[in-house]
Amino acid sequence: MAASMWWRGFEAVGRRRFSCSHRNWAKIVPAVDGGEEADLTEKTTAKTFSAMQAERHEQAERTILISCPSNISEKKFYKYLSSYGTINKYFFYEGFGIYAVVEFSDKESIGTLKGFSSIPSLQHECAVPFKSRLFNLRNSHPRELSAARPSVSCLKQSVIPLNELIRKLSGAESIDEQLYTVCKEYQITEENTRLRFLVCSLVKDIAAAYFPECSIRPFGSSVNNFGKMGCDLDMFLDLDSISGRNNTKTGGAFSMEYGTKRVASERVATQSTLSVIGECIDQFAPGCTGIQKILNARCPLVKFSHQPSGLQCDLTANNRIAMRSTELLYIYSNIDPRVRALVFGVRCWARSQGITSNIPGSWITNFSLTMMVLFLLQKRNPPIIPTLDQLRDLAEAEDKHVIESHDCTFVLNNKIKPSQNTETLEELLQEFFEFYGNFAFNQMSINIRKGKEQHKPEASPLYIQNPFEQALNVSKNVNQTQLEKFVTSARESAWILQQEGLKRPMSNTKPWGLAALLLPTMQSPGGKSKKKRQPASERIKSLLDSLKANKETAGYLNRSNGGRRHICTVAW
Ligand code: GTP
Ligand code: MG
Q1: Which of 317, 276, 303, 307 is nearest to 360 (CA)?
Q2: Smallest-distance ligand from the CA of 233
Q3: Which residues hold their Cβ within 5 A of ligand 2, which is an ion?
Q4: Is 94 helix (H, G, I), strand (E, B) or coil?
Q5: What mean pLDDT is predicted for residues 221-237?
Q6: Distances from the Cα of 194 to the Cαs of 37, 59, 309, in angstroms?
Q7: Residue of the nearest CA to atom 14 in ligand 1?
Q8: Which ligand sits nearest to residue 333's alpha carbon?
Q9: What is the DSSP string of 488-526?
Q10: How far apart are alpha carbons 387 and 447 in whole angstroms?
Q11: Is the pLDDT of residue 267 over 60?
């Protein structure tokens, strides 16, 4: 893609957050406090998922990662690297040392740089001579440079600590502002997105030794707009584009096929491909450690840690449905700004309550929580987002997408009309807790394809139908205890949000609203307080029910007053 086209694309996404200066190059700088920042409530016309992926991928191919000396001088750094080619963007961050991400305007510059770089000669060890795009920058004149003060500012690649977030939220004017603040503070930054695509591109260099035309693309929360800084990097090794099934010359006397090894199934082919690439990552990829091949999982994968970026990586192959789910979530996230804000708020709440965890287990995953939020938004009157069946019905012939006989068709985001629903995020958060605090999980399933609950086809405690593989439950891992913990927390939170004492106080230091729900005292670590919480939950449910009855008879909810609820406080 031409550089000028790429640049226009970048402007559309990031123009408010970065300052550009200095002839034809730009250092990426974060938006400063009080400066102009992207308005998260603004309706943006987002790029299509595939256009976004293609641009980022191409950008990553022109980018390198450099481990820098701690006393690096930015001026000298820039001057030195510019001698290899024009630099488009660069930024520094701190991990195990200082790293720089440098994007050249041409891929050829990396070739030139490689030509002038050497494999290190080590004293007690030996270097594996794989020439990757992870470089070490050495001071040629250490003495001269050590006198110089470090002059680089590093961008943060980690998430704001919970106590700091609570402090920020306590100063907000409304629960809506609190939810947008969580989203703004937790979302993956522009630079972190670049780093994620760069790591995929570095791993692709390894896989390309066997499959030169392959691509490695991020999926999941790294790119679906619901990712939090620090979330894992889900990678998809795409070998589909190399099949060449459409390449056959027609009309001649013959057609040619590659001679290939044959294996019993696609799953076996995926397992052996991932096994070999996992081995190569282990042996050759600098910075990749802790490689684990989990090839017998339903979706075989290779797990590893990419130390220079600090990212935990999951490499899968032949996982096109997950890629399509990612695109679907991306589309939903762009329909209305309330979608992202509510998903971030609910994920953050669930984490602080100990309902979810990064470690796989019998708890509700972030993906399932996202589906629950989407389902609630489909059920509002009028709905805030369409059902998946409606998205499919809006699709044109060119949007048709079938994967392994599953219909994965939906319309692209730029063809979806905005909703007429005007509910506030405060109302929606309250509805989330009330809706799921009372949901008939024992009988019904959640189905974002239909936007309606349906009878469960089997007895899993929580049943969230997989939107594409419709016979599957995305929350099959969740056990009864974890579901009860979720329901209990939802009821308690519904109740707490209604307490007058937790409405916005005069002083902006006391945690209120969402901040009150995230307080450590609200946590339920390891189900320790389970026995005590269960009766409280039942009591809260009946209190909420009685409030609901009052609401129906006495017009309890005054939505004309900016959505603020007026209730009598019941002590408990
Ligand atoms: P976090 O990593 O927790 O931030 O969220 P995530 O959305 O990336 O979830 P995860 O890493 O667990 O999974 C990555 C992606 O795989 C998800 O976004 C989905 O697209 C897909 N996925 C995860 N679990 C399931 C599942 O049970 N069924 C299906 N169909 N897809 C899933
Ligand atoms: Mg993930």
Answers
A1: 303
A2: 2
A3: 220-221, 232, 234
A4: strand
A5: 96
A6: 19, 8, 11
A7: 220
A8: 1
A9: HHHHHHHHHHT-GGGSPPSSSSS--THHHHHSGGG--GG
A10: 9
A11: yes
Residue 381's alpha-carbon distances to 176, 334, 372, 420, 439, in angstroms, are 19, 20, 17, 9, 18
Of 483, 485, 474, 522, residue with least CA distance to 502: 522
365 lines ligand 1 (CB under 6 A): yes
Phi, psi of 98 (to 5 degrees): -95, 130
Q: Give the ligand 1 atom nearest the CA of 228.
A: 4
What percent of the chain stands above pLDDT 70?
Answer: 78
The answer to whether 463 touches 474, Cβ cutoff 8 Å, is: no
Instruction: Express each pLDDT in 459-483 by its tens digit.
Output: 999 999 999 999 999 999 999 999 9
Judge whether residue 343 has pLDDT over 80.
Answer: yes
Q: Specify whether the CB–CB gap between 517 and 349 falls below 8 A.
A: yes
| pTM of the shown model | 0.85
Q: Is the CB of 221 under 6 A from ligand 1?
A: yes
CA dist 195 and 188 (Å) reads 10
Q: How many Å lie between the centroid of ligand 2 and the Cα of residue 402?
A: 24
Predicted pLDDT at 557: 36
**323 CB less than 6 Å from ligand 1?**
no
- Identity (one letter) of the amino acid at 478? V
- The CA distance from 149 to 72, in Å, is 8
* Range of weakest confidence among 120-134, 191-205, 269-283, 346-360: 120-134
Does residue 91 have a pLDDT over 50?
A: yes
- DSSP string covering 10-68: HHHHHTTT----STT-EE--PPPTTS----TTS---PPPHHHHHHHHHHHHHTEEEEEE
Q: What is the DSSP letter of 119?
A: P
Q: How far apart are CA 356 and CA 374, in angstroms?
A: 18
Q: How many other C-beta atoms can be found within 10 angstroms of the C-beta atom of residue 273?
A: 19
Question: Which residues, in sequence order, are CB contacts of 455 under 8 Å at separation 6+?
Answer: 443, 444, 445
Q: Look at residue 81 in the predicted model and tell me its pLDDT.
A: 95
Return the residue whose CA atom lies nearest to atom 21 of ligand 1.
322
Point out the ligand 1 atom lying closest to the alpha carbon of residue 325: 20
The rounded distance, in Å, linking the Cα atoms of 271 and 278 is 10
CB contact at 8 A, 241 and 213: yes
Residue 542 has pLDDT above 80, yes or no: no
Highest mean pLDDT: which range of 134-148, 244-258, 395-409: 395-409
Ligand 1 atom showing the smallest separation from residue 469 Cα: 30
Taking CA atoms only, the protein residue closest to ligand 1 atom 26 is 474
What is the enclosing helix (H) or strand (E) of 376?
Answer: helix 366-378
Asked whether 344 lines ligand 1 (CB < 6 A), one says no
Atom of ligand 1 nearest to the CA of 476: 27
Which ligand places an atom closest to the C-alpha of 227?
A: 1
Confirm or reject: Cβ of 227 under 6 Å from ligand 1. yes
